[in-house]
Design a protein that fits this description.
Layout: E1 5-9, H1 13-28, H2 33-54, E2 57-64, E3 73-80, H3 88-91, H4 105-112, E4 115-119, E5 127-133, E6 149-156, E7 166-173, E8 176-184, H5 189-205, H6 210-220, E9 227-235, E10 240-246, E11 250-255, E12 258-261, E13 264-265, E14 278-282, E15 287-292, H7 313-324, E16 331-338, E17 349-351
Parallel strand pairs: 10-13
Antiparallel strand pairs: 1-2, 2-3, 3-5, 4-5, 6-16, 7-8, 7-17, 8-9, 9-10, 10-14, 11-12, 11-15, 15-16
């Protein structure tokens, strides 16, 4: 499966670059020619809007594997540094434009994507989220009501680096989800090697509990640069989340208006690791967990983003990356929401290290 694509939108040349990368990703995911074309057009409109109205922004594309038997989706998040939109209702209508264009951008994106959402931060700018499946029928997953989870995760390399030293993995179990987020010390190929080894190990020990998983990761990472890591075990049956963190992986659990900071202990996985310790928190049908590396500033507050908790996980992750991503390090974020309307559920097995 394609790796994450992250492109800074600076000028018109980025439009064709993003379009080409999107078509390649859709082809690699087995999408039909028709589906590849609608992905291409929607991405073109999204990036063109950034160039036309904001002048600068970012394009993020992340394949997400939604089930062991298939069901992959291509998630796209585009955010800009512009002034925002004053009349969103009018802008969604074809033919309306404030910059002399054809006025089909947002409307086309909504029609061509399987899932479409946008968010207007109070500080200005716009965050657009789109998801595409290869099913051909736009109504088949609009919205994905049978999914128990709304998941978005990505790892971005430090500017100038070809690989990220951060990595994530999400595995299903019979009671819910298990999540790994790992940050190899430093950045570059050696950090990437440590993170990749952790993801590979996690896939073999996912049936263990958090402390045992962390001990297994410690053995697997010996001889590498080492890493900081966290494992979250979301248990829908017991209504709880167990969090086992080692080092500065940041996590928050949001239950309605209450936010819990998830507790880690100090240490380095693979080198000088202390005994791991798990902490338990409640999990409800409307809960949300957000994990990120120190490449994303930890002083964020969703209260500064009115209404965003009702958005899809990709929009939430995009807004946090827009406001708090550091260019001095690799950056990773995992956002998982429980879908209270889920009635059967998709199992989830996904990872980003390649």
């Amino acid at each position: 499966m394609s790796a994450v694509v992250f492109i800074e939108i600076e000028d018109k040349s980025r439009i064709s670059q993003c379009r080409r990368r999107a078509k390649v990703a859709a082809k690699e995911m087995g999408y039909s020619e028709v589906d590849r074309e609608r992905v291409s057009i929607a991405v073109t409109e999204a990036v063109s809007n950034v160039v036309r109205h904001a002048g600068r922004g970012f394009f993020l594309m992340q394949p997400m594997k939604l089930s062991e038997s298939g069901g992959d989706e291509l998630a796209v998040v585009v955010w800009d540094e512009g002034p925002g939109i004053a009349h969103i209702g009018q802008c969604m209508k074809d033919g309306y434009s404030t910059a002399g264009g054809q006025g089909i951008g947002l409307g086309a994106m909504k029609r061509l994507s399987d899932v479409f959402e946008l968010y207007l931060p109070q500080t200005g700018g716009l965050v657009v989220g789109m998801s595409f499946s290869g099913g051909g029928d736009l109504k088949s997953i609009q919205p994905p009501r049978d999914a128990l989870w709304d998941i978005f995760a990505t790892s971005l390399a430090k500017p100038g680096q070809s690989v990220s030293g951060d990595a994530w993995a999400i595995e299903s179990w019979d009671r819910g989800l298990k999540v790994l987020l790992v940050d190899g010390l430093g950045h570059g190929p050696k950090a990437h090697q440590a993170a990749t080894r952790a993801v590979d190990c996690f896939a073999t020990v996912r049936d263990l509990e958090g402390e045992s998983i962390m001990l297994a990761l410690n053995e697997a990472l010996k001889g590498t640069r080492g890493a900081v890591a966290a494992v979250a075990e979301v248990d829908n049956v017991a209504g709880s989340t167990r969090f086992t963190g080692m080092g500065n992986i940041f996590g928050r659990l949001i239950n309605g208006t209450e936010t819990s900071q998830l507790t880690s202990v100090s240490g380095t996985v693979g080198y000088n690791m202390r005994n791991p310790r798990s902490f338990e928190y409640p999990w409800f049908e409307d809960s949300m967990i957000i994990l990120h590396s120190d490449g994303v500033g930890s002083r964020w507050d969703l209260g500064k983003f009115p209404g965003i908790s009702y958005s899809r996980s990709s929009i939430i992750a995009g807004a946090l990356l827009r406001g708090y991503r550091k260019v001095s390090d690799d950056s990773s974020i995992v956002c998982i929401k429980s879908n209270s309307k889920g009635v059967g559920g998709r199992s989830t097995v996904s990872r980003n290290a390649t």
